[in-house]
Amino acid sequence: MGKGRAQFLFVGNHPCLDFVNTQMIVKGEPIDTLESFDDLVSWLIQANLMTTSHVNITRAGLSQKEATSLLEQAKNLRATMRDLAERIAARNPISDTSLQIINQFLSQRPCYPQLVRLKGRFEQRFHSVASPAQNILALIAESASNLLCQTDYTLIKKCGNPACILYYYDTTKNHTRNWCSMQLCGNRMKVAAHYWRNRSRRA
Ligand SMILES: [Zn+2]
Fold this sequence. Notes:
The mean pLDDT is 89. The chain is an alpha+beta fold. It has helices at residues 15-20, 37-46, 52-60, 64-89, 96-106, 132-150, 182-202, and strands at 23-26, 29-32, 111-118, 121-128, 156-158, 167-169. It is elongated. Helix 4 packs antiparallel against helix 5 (96-106) and helix 5 crosses helix 6 (132-150). The strands form three sheets. It has a two-stranded antiparallel ribbon with strand order 1-2. The chain has a two-stranded antiparallel sheet with strand order 3-4. It binds zinc ion. Zinc ion is lined by residues 159, 161, 164, 166, 179-180, 184-185. Residues 159, 161, 164, 166, 179-180, 184-185 line the site of zinc ion.
């Protein structure tokens, strides 16, 4: 998917899972929707983790080599995040290595609080001294940190289709969501279940 054409899937209900879901299997073929640095920034904008003006600042100071390296690092981080999602969904413990990797990326974004004068009051805001490039990776790592600290693990699920590798945070009222999406897997699995039920009945 080239510049400006990237269409990403946002079925995860959480930016961390949506980032993991940039890798998928379609008709048995593994697909990586992050083919370029431009795809990565498109994803960050579509996920509401960055604004267009942020992205322009980030792009401006980057050489092609740095952009390629950033994409590479983001993909390594994604592999750690996929491992996290897999383990949580399977009710397995999180490895210390994963925590170390995420902490490493988080540490690349040193922030300090600053007082801002507003109408009749003051507010404390965090100011980052990291480079825009470091900010990108830290933002993605932060989504993993939020997943670990702020969600109910029992609602982090893998799609019920064994051939699908997508994850989601089940926010349905009765927590009965079974599929990444009805169009992608739900209908297909229902048709398959119907076929097997009828087949065994005939047998
Ligand atoms: Zn699925």
